[in-house]
Every structure is written in structure tokens, then in C-alpha cells.
């Protein structure tokens, strides 16, 4: 029955629970912490893959790696491609930073702080660890929950990162210890004695 004095029934819960599916190459929308990490790493790996494949193709076309090293055409081609790939990665990185800031309900202009030394480290840590705002904010609806693929890529990335740091430490620590030992032995040989002069 139609009651003219009844309170209007609005589905408030449905409007605040609106979400959207973030896309890898999208230039707008919000981006959560895990997707920010995975998308940034995926973008970097994609750029390296493109430059590597084109480098191998250019070397094969120029007659092998030995002849391609002396070819200015191949060097110019690879240099231009590397610059284009770096420019693409830079633009997409700025877009990801803006999207991540928007997820925290902050303006994208704060991405300019990435140009300020020391402040950029704090901003990078904020982008990785500060959670985004719950529900919709002034920059749009919240992104959907991370899919299994994003979670798997994040887990694999962390394992590879820890392994990489372990390999670097396994090489760097003995090399540094060798450097310390050699410098100490040099200092002992160069000890000043009063009768030397």
C-alpha cells in the first residue's frame, strides 16, 4: 500500500559499497598497496623484457653480437628504444603514484614530492604501507579486493626480493670483510715510527 507519510527508502549501503576493477594501464582510479607494488614491478619487468627482446633482434639483424657492438645504427636504435621504454616507465610510475595517493584520499599533486630528496623516501614508504581510505572517497569508489593473481604475484615478488637481497649480502659481506682486512694490513705496514724520517 502507498503511504504518503512513510520515510523514503534509500539503499545507502549499496552506494557506499560500490567498487571498481583497477586496470594495469589505466590512468585514473584508485590503486591499493598490493596492486601498486605488483603493477610497478610488473611494469619494470615488462620494460626490461621489451628492451631485451629488441636488443636480441637488433643484434641478430646486424649480424651477431660481435658486429652489432661496433654498429652505430644498432647502438642508436637500442639507445632510442631504451629511452622510450624509460620514458614510458616514468610516465606510468607517476600515474601509479597519483592513483595510490588518490586511494589515500590525497591529491595527486603530492606526487611532486618524489622530486624532493629524503621526502621522496618518506612518500615511497607511505605509498607502500599506509592503507587507503575505506569505501568511496572524493577520487572514486574503492578498488575491488585483490584477486588471487595479484596476491600470488605479490608473494612471488617478495620471495624473489628476499632471495635477491640474500645473494647481494652473500657477495657483499665477504667482499667488504676482505676490503677491511686489506686496509688494516696496509695501515699496519704504514705505521709511523720515529726513526723513519
Automatic annotation (TrEMBL):
The source organism is Alcanivorax hongdengensis A-11-3
Concerning InterPro entries, the annotation shows: DUF805, Pilin-like
Tell me the organism's taxonomic lineage.
Answer: Bacteria, Pseudomonadati, Pseudomonadota, Gammaproteobacteria, Oceanospirillales
**Has the keyword RNA-binding been applied to this entry?**
no
Kindly give the Pfam families that the UniProt entry links to this protein. Answer: DUF805
Q: Does the keyword Oxidoreductase apply?
A: no
Gene3D superfamilies, from UniProt? Glycoprotein, Type 4 Pilin
A GO cellular component annotated for this chain's UniProt record is: plasma membrane
Which residue ranges run through the membrane?
36-61, 73-98, 110-130, 150-176
* Parts forming coiled coils: none
Supply the name of the protein: DNA translocase FtsK
Q: Which UniProt keywords apply?
A: Membrane, Transmembrane, Transmembrane helix
Recorded hits in SUPFAM superfamilies, A to Z, give: Pili subunits
